[in-house]
Amino acid sequence: MKILFVMPKVGAWATHGKHISPNQLYAHWAAYVREKGYEDVSVIDGRALEMPMDELIEKVKDKNPDVVVLGEQLHGYGGYGVLRHFNEAAKRIKEVLPKTKIILGGLWYSAMPEYTLNCQPAVDYIVMGEEESFFDIIDAIAKSKPLQDVAGVACRIDGKPVLGPHKPLMENLDLLPLPAYDLFPMDKYVGHTHWKPFVDMVTSRGCPSACTFCYEWDQYDPRFPSDFLKWRAKSPERVIEELELLHKKYGVKVVVIQDDNFNVDPARVKKFCELKKQKEIPIKWVSLGRAVDWVNCESILPLMKETGLFIGVFGIEVTTPEELKKIAKGITIDQIKKTVEILRRNDIAVVADIMMGFDYDTEAIVKQRYEFTDMVDPDILWVGYVTPAPSSPMWRIGLKKKWIDVEKIDFGTWDFLHPVMPTDHLSIEELGRLGSWCMREFFSKPGRINRIMESNFDMLAKLCFQDVMAGINKWEAAATKGEVQI
At 285, is the pLDDT very low, low, confident or very high (cuts 50, 70, 90)? Predict the structure, then answer.
């Protein structure tokens, strides 16, 4: 059984500059099936190799695999903008290799199995589950087992989509093998144009919150959206083992821990830092987390800084207690303010985002959101447009209000940089102009740029800031003119 993971050439968000990292879905799934005995596994990373689609298809044809896998786990550089490339690749691979089985999984696909199978005849299977489900479908194909019995997988039976039984989530992520980085061109990866060698890491899954807009609703069986709320994490020892591999074997210098909630458990974070310090792993790192979790880690922020944390990322999203409750964010205004204060006190650069495009948004609400953010004063602001993930509450709102027509979705603009739905009070065009206004106002404030460049922040943070500034015009072109960038 020859298994090939294919990553087409895709772009990155305008404010990320050149941003390329190993596909974490592929790295985890490949390692798992290889450990289970399917050793003929390879990756073509057309993104890292800057390979045009025609060349990519020829490479796939030359390899003549039994199975091709397409999909992604992270939204961290392009949102759903990557899907059009996956869809095109699936179609063209099936044209040149009609006997090759094509499997999709990860963001969007896992939550939309029936829709995907109905509208994409080139696709044979959708993995709704995780590594175990992927292995099970590979094993079923190899051994001609009944496909409809494979838990966590959707297939076609007599031309119609059939969903297998629900697959319970793996509780102990330490049972997973280390990601199969050996399959990737590890010298090609770079973050924010200047961070290299670079890797995005994933050390936990799920979330203890249930934000109405969150993109991660889309990576679970649509019949069991509550799976998303089960936060599971690799142990600090396991995370350090992966970090040590990246340092010693591949010379990685910077990682972004892409978990939305790396710092949910302060004791876990503390142990991670202690082990990193003990083993003298020099990799610098960026972490994402909710404001409440940053506040809970206040006492260990000096240790986090000492062990290489140079940027802390969190979502402000909305800026009144009523709104925070409405979107189920699980944080308070005071925690937002304190997060900025404690990160800056420790010379950790602050990246914060606000969202716009909720169904109730008005111009006044959006401008109040900006004014609050300007007041709490993060170092880097990112404006994101509500881009509903399948299975999320905002997805249901969009469908109910007929703002989403699944048949007409243009994934080229579903990347969080483009407004894709109106609100009850604002058009898509008005949202685009308001977002552009927020970004321009924030980064043109006198003294803000000088403060950052003259700060004690790590030079990597300052280089990231330069990258963001260089991308503002392209960000605006996406928001106001519909320019497609991913």
Answer: very high
pLDDT in tens, 367-406: 999 999 999 999 999 999 999 999 999 999 999 999 999 9
CB 369 within 8 A of CB 477: no
What's the rounded Cα separation, in Å, for the pair 327 and 317? 9
Residue type, 353: D
Helices 53-63 and 83-96: crossing angle in degrees, nearest 10, is: 50
HSE-CB for 473 with a 13 A CA cutoff: 2
Phi-psi label, residue 106: left if phi above 0, alpha if psi -120 to 50, beta otherwise: left
Rounded to a whole number, what is the largest CA-CA distance in the chain? 67
Measured torsion, CA atoms of residues 135, 136, 141, 144, in degrees rounded to the nearest 10? 150
**Sheet of strand 101-106: strand arrangement:** 41-45, 3-7, 67-72, 101-106, 125-127, 153-157, 160-163
Radius of gyration of the CA atoms of the chain, in A: 22
- Fill in the amino acid letter for 365: I
Strands 254-257 vs 232-233: parallel, antiparallel or unpaired: unpaired
Instruction: Provide the b/e sequence for 183-212 (b: ≥16 CB within 10 Å).
Output: bbebebbbbbbbbbbbbbbbbbbbbebbbb
317 close to 354: Cβ distance less than 8 angstroms:
yes
Other Cβ atoms within 10 Å of 73 Cβ, number: 23
State both tokens at 363. 């111009």
Number of Cβ within 10 Å of residue 64's Cβ equals: 12
Q: Tokens in use for 20?
A: 């390329």
Give the E-state strand segments of 190-234 in sequence order: 198-201, 204-205, 232-233
Q: Do 98 and 66 meet the contact criterion of CB atoms below 8 Å apart?
A: no
Residue with tokens 């995907």: 116
Unique residue bearing structure tokens 């509550």? 226
Q: Is the CB of residue 306 less than 8 Å from the CB of residue 266?
A: no
Q: What is the pLDDT of residues 438-465, one digit of tens each?
A: 999 999 988 899 999 999 999 999 999 9
CB 224 within 8 A of CB 113: no
Residues counted in the chain: 486
Distance CA 310, CA 308 (A): 6
Q: Tell me the whole-structure pTM to 2 decimals.
A: 0.96
pLDDT digits (tens, 9 = 90+) for 200-232: 999 999 888 878 988 888 999 999 988 988 899
Cβ distance 94 to 122 under 8 Å? Answer: yes
